[in-house]
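agent> fetching stored inputs for the zinc ion docking request
agent> found them:
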Amino acid sequence: MSKDVYILAIESSCDETAASVIKNGREILSNVINTQIEIHKEFGGVVPEVASRKHIENVSDVISKAVEDSGKSVEEIDAVAVTYGPGLVGALLVGLNAAKALAYAWKKPLIGVNHIEGHISANYLMKNNLQPPFMCLVVSGGHTHIVHVEDYGKFNVLGRTRDDACGEAYDKVARALGLGYPGGPKIDKLAKDGNKDAIDFPRVKLENHSLDFSFSGLKSAVLNYLNQNKQKNIEIVDADVAASFQEACVDVLVDKTISAAKLKGCSKIALAGGVAANSRLRESMKSNCQLNNFDFYMPDIKLCTDNAAMIGSRAYYMFLNEEFSEFDLNAYPNLEIGK
Ligand code: KG4
Ligand code: ZN
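agent> prediction call returned; pasting tokens
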């Protein structure tokens, strides 16, 4: 039997400082996440400069705790992985420099990981034995992609948003409803008390058979609805707005992912990214997969939003191929998937 592989992974692309030790790409030995949500809440969104400073303050403690919690010694760790894009450049550089310093001092290989590929790999941490190929809907605060995962390291993007990311639309609608940051979980909760059929918000499908998305029209439709009703002094039921907006997002997301899987003859569909934590999306994708005979996979809710465990999982498959990075690896805020 071949030797077990232990990877220390670090993630700092946005407002979570995270570190994790992963065994053989599939088993979480430790998963430490220090979130800055409480700090950025005051500003209504992530302030990049503040995020970088907080990462600097926290990164050493988060990494030490991840190694300690894992029960593994530094000698047993085979590689140091880190997110190098996409994300906020100043935030990424903190994790990247910490990873470089450790890899250099410990004489271990450095593995630069794409954050989106990490989100997809969160599905491998579920003891479900998921193996490619599968169709994955990646929905986060910065990205909305339909990705055909042809192999562990082979990603074919079939569709993407042409304007706002889905999570961004959630956050903006939440702000208009006065729910605060981050809006996704708040809309999710409020929508449970609302009627999803109350308001007929647009389902933007774009050209025939396009797998791309557009959420800016939906966002504007919600903002117009709120403004017009306020002007006319018509009572607005916030829960109905949340539920109807959410349903318009989920309908399009599910519909296009199922079409993509049919197009490529995939038998499996997976969810990934922060918005994959959304209860209505999870429920609707699951029931539509059952209806259409697809096997359905999704990460635990805490593995949907940013974490380092997913980075460690992605890095394992890069480790097997000896896809190591040089020590001059830079941060790439707009890094594309599959690059
Ligand atoms: O993946 P993530 O943690 O960060 C990025 O890579 O962008 O995603 C954060 C996004 C935010 O827009 C947040 O509002 C959204 O995920 N989100 C949700 C839920 N939980 C987080 N959106 C809808 N429903 C949720 N339950
Ligand atoms: Zn993310």
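agent> quick read of the result: The longest helix spans residues 238-264.
agent> awaiting further instructions
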